[in-house]
Amino acid sequence: MPAFAKGCQERYGLASDTRARFERCLSESAQPDLPLPSRATRTYLDILFFHPFEDGNARAAMLALAFVL
């Protein structure tokens, strides 16, 4: 079930490309040519931005941040 924000002007939730975006996000977080703080921050913000789950996105983003660090 999607989540809505800003008076239903923005929609979050699963989309057809959500899994691919999530996998790409995690793959990019392992690139050794980027500084660690940049990779961790990008992973965190990407997960918050595309909301891969109906609930718990902030917790998932924090776990991913800790994992990358």
Q: What is the N-to-C order of secondary-structure elements (H for helix, E for strand)?
A: EEHHH
First-to-last CA distance? 31 Å
Low-confidence stretches: none
The share of residues in helices is 55-70%
The Rg value, from CA coordinates, equals: 13 Å
Find the structural class using helix and strand composition: mainly alpha
- Based on DSSP secondary structure assignment, what is the total number of beta strands? 2
Mean pLDDT: 83
Largest sheet: 2 strands, antiparallel
Q: Provide the number of structural domains.
A: 1
Tell me what the structure shows.
By secondary structure, the protein is mainly alpha-helical. It has one domain. Helices cover 55% and strands 9% of the residues. It has 3 helices and 2 strands, in the order ββααα. Strands 1-2 form a two-stranded antiparallel sheet. Strand 1 and strand 2 form a beta hairpin. Helix 1 packs antiparallel against helix 2 and helix 2 runs antiparallel to helix 3. The chain is elongated, with a radius of gyration of 13 Å. The protein starts with a strand and ends with a helix. 10% of the residues are buried.
